[in-house]
# Entry
Amino acid sequence: VASKVLMRGGWPYYYLGAGNLIFLGLAFSVARRMRGERLPHLWEVKWITTRALLGSVNLLLAVYAVQIGSAAGDVAALMSINVVVAALLAHFLLGERLRCIHSLALVCSFAGSVLIAQPNFIFGDDAADAGAPDVWVGNCLAVL
# Structure
């Protein structure tokens, strides 16, 4: 609700959002220092920065996916399988143990997101997508 009010009022919504995140980051940093906690080591900063960058790229790809024609609900459903991708990568790259129940959960999560998004190449042409030929590109961006 507040975001709609700000946008209708002509406020620089995205600049306010970015400023809010910077303020919160500084506030948490000051609170940690006041509690006597140590600063992160350089190798920890590398991972923190990488995580922040990838999270921002994920959000930008989701926004772009909606802008080129994908439905917001489809993008949200497809973004939810990031956990599935992370679990599979952890199994193959890190050697994490993947039990039968985990595999079933991964398959169900992936199938659920496909059933929600209902891609044209599985469910056939949809008249609603006829005006937006780049929907499949948007759905692919949402998975990233």
User: Anything to note?
Assistant: The longest helix spans residues 42-67. The mean pLDDT is 80. DSSP finds eight helices and no strands in the chain. The radius of gyration is 20 Å.
